[in-house]
Amino acid sequence: MISHLYFTRTPERLLATALGVAALCGAAFGQTAPAGPTLTGDTSRPSSSMFAAGEPVTLTFQVSGLAANDSSQHLLLNITDAHDVSVWTKDVPIAADASGNWTGNVDAPHAQLGFYRVHASLTDGVTLPAVFTRKAGYLTYAVVPDPAQRKLYPEMDTHFGMQGGFSDSVNVIPYLGVRWVLSGHGWSSLEPKQPGTYPADLAAARAAGGTLPAKSPATEGVLYNGKPWKTYALFSINGAPDYAIQPDTKGSSTAALKPEYEDAYKKYIGEAAREIVQDYPDYAQRIYQITWEPVFPWGFKGTDEQLIKYYQLAYPAIHAVDPKALVVGPTDGGLGQHALD
After folding, report:
1. 10 Å Cβ neighbour count for 247?
2. Last residue of some domain: 110, 144, 178?
3. Which of 100, 128, 144 finishes a domain?
C-alpha cells in the first residue's frame, strides 16, 4: 500500500548557490572562472514539475556568458516521452543582451498524459548541468490526471498511498492521486524521555493550540486549488524510545524491547489506539503498523522471537479499545533480487 517517494526543494537553486560559493572561493585564490556560455532551465512549477491535464507547461531557459549582443547561438530542444521517443522539437534563436545574457520562455506540449524529458543544448553543444540524481542534458516534467476530476472512494476501496516528502512547497499528493498517508504515533516521538507521559503531553499540546504530535500534516490540510484534498491515515506506531530498547539489537529502524518496558509499551500503545479511535471515529477499519522495515541485519539485529514480541503485546492492547483495528506488519523494506527469485 505504501510506496517510498522522496522530494527535495528546488535543487537547482541549491546548485546555483553552491556554484556561486565555488566561484567566490576561486576568485579569492586568484583563479579565473571558466569562459564560455552556461545554460540553465526549469519548468513553470519548479517545486515538482507536475501539471494537471489542461494546465499550460512553460519552460524557462537562461543563457549567460555570451558575447555582448551575440545572436549566433540557438537553443535546440527535443522532448521525449517515457519510452524515449521524440514527440516534439524546436529551434529557438538566441539574442544576447549587452551583458551577454538571454532569457526565454517556451510553451511545452501538454495535451497527453505522461512523463516528458526535455533535452536542451546550445548550438555549440553546451547543455544543462546535472542536478543531484538528474543527469546533465535535460530537465523533466509530467502531465497527470486533473485531481479535481478524481473520484473520492471510501477508504476500503482506495489502495494508493505514499510515505515521505510532504512539504507545503512541494504539494505532490493531489497530483499523484495519493489518498493513504502515514500518521505518526511512534512511541519514541510521544514518550521520548520516560513512559507514562502520553496522552497528557498530547492534551497539553492541544490545550496550547500547538501542532498535534500524534498526527501527520499530510492527514490534514492538504489542498488542491484551494479546496481540501481528502487523505486517509495509516497509523504508524513503530519506534521505541532509546530507554526501552536493547541497544545491541538496533538496526536502522527497529530494536528489541527490554523486558522491563513491555508493560509500558502495552500501556502506551493502548492509549495511542484510544486516541486514534477518538480522532478517526468514522473509519470502516483502522490500520495499525507496528514495526518499520525490520530487515535483518540492517533494519533489525534482534531475533525473530524479539520481533514477534511486539505483536504479542500490541495486538491485544489495540483490540481492547478498537474493535475496528487491523494490525499489519512486519512491513519489510527493500526488495532485492533474492526476494524476486
Report:
1. 10
2. 144
3. 144
